[in-house]
Design goal:
The structure holds two protein chains of two kinds.
Chain A lengths: L24 H18 L6 E15 L3 E17 L4 E5 L6 H8 L7 E6 L2 E2 L5 H8 L2 E4 L13 H12 L7 H11 L16 H13 L5 E5 L7 H18 L2 E5 L3 H7 L2 E6 L2 E7 H6 L4 H9 L5 H6 L30 H5 L5 E4 L2 E3 L11
Parallel strand pairs in A: 3-8, 3-9, 6-7, 7-8
Antiparallel strand pairs in A: 1-2, 1-4, 4-5, 9-10, 10-12, 11-12
Chain B lengths: L1 H6 L1 H11 L19 E12 L2 E13 L4 E5 L6 H8 L9 E8 L2 E2 L5 H7 L4 E4 L3 H4 L6 H12 L5 H14 L5 H4 L9 H13 L5 E5 L7 H18 L2 E6 L2 H7 L2 E6 L2 E7 H6 L4 H9 L44 H4 L4 E5 L2 E4 L4 H12 L4
Parallel strand pairs in B: 3-8, 3-9, 6-7, 7-8
Antiparallel strand pairs in B: 1-2, 1-4, 4-5, 9-10, 10-12, 11-12
Helix pairs in contact in B: 6-7, 7-9
The chains are: A alpha/beta, B alpha/beta.
């Protein structure tokens, strides 16, 4: 398996050098390390989380007489971004774009195929065993489905206490008291300690999931579509809870969602993915106000707005067709088959992630500033 | 209140008739009550007796739509919106559900028609698009076979070959590439958006004049949702169907609907033209929904204002106004009224009905001072 675009690993900060100069992978990596070190110094230490060219392929097999390897599913294909302490990074894209796989891989729930994951400046790409278990105290996850992610045969108390048990921690003041404090913190009645998940509504169950995730006081939580299964009137409750806990505990979130309005509300920085690749990355306001990638334009223009006059007049960029298979992604730019602006060059060359404005990265041959909202 | 519902939409149908002049008026000859709409639902109740008590899923809902019009039914899970649409299709007939009220479709009383007639109407004159096309389609039969079955049930004179030609034509109409090949594929070979298109093709197979879409785009991505909504609009313009759009997405109804019915705890709490409900909402639940959601068309706010509490259980609907335990404006209503008396649907603007105890003048004041700046 070869890295599809060695150029893509050229760090943004070194883009000053002539781009046509031949760059070997090694020199690029060296340049990256040097540039990163400089950037880290400027920003006051390494970021909490840094992904470099993270790739996750799922091998596939053709079942003939003998099992033969087929093209792998390229779920995540060279994704790089950084997350600073106390910040929220929104990860958006259509279903099947690999955003959940990024979340799971960075938590080391899946083994990355290649690339690097750094947590607090430490390479955690291949840690295992006890070291990995210790790492889990720092990184937790909140799941999308509040029905499927809680064991129906366990009481709420034992569900929220599970992290302590697994980690072998005896919290001060006893497990029961700590769990009840956590329940109170997320807005549940601590007296419901012995109840079962089915006795709670969707919103309350999601609060249980939040309590379990913050039990060990992690530094990073990956929230995988935490509000999309909830009713509109409940979504805001859970979003506010997540924000309050973030401020209290200086938490960082990777917030995976397909709802672009919720992502704008909660994120500091936003990454747009398509078919396993990063399309655009920028600070929240910049991304929503000056999106440059045609895919971001299409996504933003497709969101229906709750305003009859604006909604019916709004100019929509309708994408043709469906998402191509991640097993056989299109050549060149993966978005070209649905892109309204695609030309021959898009099929021939893979667009490189470039810094088009300070801290604003785009992977497109023809980026264009366009107001969509 | 009944007077009201019947008298109110008259002038609206006059205005919409003009705007729909282009649409073919196939079923225009009605023999029903002269004031009835193409679909007219009056005082519909659907109650399910269970071991724990009676679940009042729908408890007195009235609305009407004409051809070429779209009504959006909005509400949280368990507010009774899907049960309403199932009742129109007569899907509760053989269950233990207790259904009462009146449903008129093109002059026919759907509550009293025979089961055979209901079967004739279902899939023919009225059709449904379900939320989850993967579970609504049979995994064992090809997409084509399922569309063909629907055509031949209602048109036994058509040969299989004719029906298949029609199926291919329909798949092409909803924008499925190479329909002649796709018609012989199974549902699992279609992507989510394509399955939803195939569902729409199936629903359209007999040119229904009433289309009920139950969360047709909830399971889809925004880009695909935009395609499907666009398709539904085009088809409506072409065939002049009446559409009931059931959704919890206020953005989708704002875009699609002419009229909106907001349901809460099995009852309509607000009902009116789309502009009224979005620009001059009058029910505190509507206020809560519109001010609690983050919006892309507005400047970002630092903090969301959620509606407190949880949606009610339908077995145990709070006494009085079902929304009162979550209502921030209870103090504005006459003392004790909210928790003891079920409010009536009253008129509060042109064609605009609301179910709330707060006096209309005071409600308008609260809206102007408190809600409008936050919309």
């Amino acid at each position: 398996m070869s890295t599809p675009t060695p150029e893509a690993s050229v760090p943004s900060s070194s883009s000053a050098q002539p781009s046509d100069a031949p760059i070997t992978a090694a020199s690029a990596a060296a340049a990256r390390t040097v540039a990163d070190a400089a950037a880290d110094k400027a920003a006051g230490g390494p970021p909490l989380l840094r992904l470099t060219e993270l790739t996750k392929h799922f091998p596939q097999f053709r079942q003939t007489l003998v099992k033969r390897p087929d093209n792998p599913v390229r779920a995540v294909d060279g994704v790089s971004f950084e997350l600073r302490k106390g910040q929220t990074l929104g990860l958006v894209g259509e279903s099947g774009c690999g955003k959940s796989t990024v979340g799971r891989t960075l938590l080391r729930l899946l083994e990355p195929t290649s690339g690097k994951i750094e947590f607090e400046g430490r390479d955690i790409t291949h840690v295992s065993g006890n070291e990995l278990r210790m790492l889990r105290r720092e990184m937790q996850m909140i799941f999308q489905d509040p029905y499927g992610s809680l064991n129906p045969r366990q009481t709420i108390g034992s569900i929220i206490a599970a992290p302590f048990e697994i980690q072998g921690i005896k919290p001060e003041g006893g497990t029961r008291k700590t769990v009840q404090d956590l329940m109170a913190r997320v807005g549940l009645n601590p007296e419901h300690y012995n109840r079962y998940p089915h006795e709670f509504s969707g919103g309350q169950r999601q609060r249980i999931g939040v309590a379990r995730a913050i039990a060990l006081r992690p530094k990073l939580i990956v929230c995988d579509e935490p509000v999309s299964a909830l009713d509109v009137s409940i979504q805001a409750q859970v979003v506010n809870l997540l924000e309050d806990i973030q401020t209290e505990q200086q938490l960082s979130y990777v917030f995976i969602a397909h709802d672009l309005s919720v992502v704008r509300h909660i994120s500091d920085r936003v990454v747009v993915m398509y078919l396993g690749k990063l399309m655009e990355e920028a600070d929240r306001d910049e991304l929503y106000e000056q999106p440059r990638h045609p895919y971001t334009h299409a996504l933003l223009s497709a969101v229906p707005v709750p305003d009859p006059h604006k909604g019916q007049k709004k100019e929509r960029i309708l994408l043709k067709g469906d998402l191509p298979s991640p097993q056989n992604p299109p050549s060149g730019c993966v978005f070209r088959t649905r892109c309204p602006k695609a030309v021959e060059k898009c099929a021939a060359e893979v667009p490189v992630r470039t810094e088009i404005a300070p801290n604003h990265f785009v992977a497109c041959h023809f980026p264009e500033e366009r107001q969509v909202l | 209140m009944a007077q009201h519902t019947t008298g109110m939409p008259q002038d609206r149908s006059a205005t919409t008739a003009a705007s729909r002049a282009a649409a073919p008026e196939k079923g225009a000859t009605t023999t029903a009550p002269s004031d009835a709409g193409y679909l007219d639902v009056r005082g519909l109740k659907v109650h399910f007796p269970t071991d724990d008590g009676v679940v009042k899923a729908v408890d007195g809902v009235s609305f009407r739509i004409d051809r070429g019009q779209t009504i959006g039914i909005v509400g949280e899970s368990g507010s009774g919106k899907s049960v309403t649409s199932q009742a129109i299709l007569g899907l509760h007939r053989r269950t233990r559900a207790q259904t009462s009220g009146q449903i008129w479709l093109d002059g026919e009383d759907l509550m009293t028609v025979s089961d055979e007639r209901m079967r004739e109407l279902r899939g023919n004159k009225m059709a449904m698009i379900f939320q989850d096309p993967l579970s609504a389609m049979h995994p064992y039969y090809t997409v084509g076979a399922q569309i063909i079955e629907g055509i031949r049930v209602h048109h036994p004179d058509q040969s299989k070959a004719q029906a298949k030609t029609r199926a291919i034509e329909l798949l092409g109409l909803v924008g499925i590439p190479s329909p002649a090949r796709r018609v012989d594929q199974y549902p699992h070979e279609f992507s989510g958006g394509m399955r939803q298109r195939a569902m729409i093709a199936m629903a359209l197979s007999n040119d229904p004049s009433l289309l009920i879409a139950d969360e047709p785009t909830t399971a889809l991505d925004v880009t695909v949702q935009a395609q499907i909504l666009d398709l539904m609009r085009k088809l409506q313009a072409e065939f002049g169907s009446a559409i009931i759009m059931i959704t919890h997405d206020l953005g989708v109804v704002a875009e699609m609907a002419d009229e909106i019915l907001v349901m809460y705890g099995g009852k309509a709490v607000e009902h009116g033209p789309v502009e009224e409900v979005f620009y001059r909402p009058q029910h505190p639940y509507g206020w809560g929904l519109l001010t609690s959601m983050p919006r892309l068309d507005r400047a970002r706010t630092e903090r969301l204002n959620p509606v407190p509490g949880n949606p009610p259980s339908l077995i145990n609907i709070p006494p009085g106004c079902a929304f009162h335990p979550r209502c921030a404006y209870q103090g504005e209503a006459p003392p004790q009224a909210c928790s003891t008396i079920v409010p009536d649907l009253i008129e509060c603007g042109p064609d605009h009905l609301v179910r709330c105890h707060i006096p209309t003048a005071r409600r308008a004041e609260i809206f102007e001072s408190d809600i409008k700046p936050r919309l």
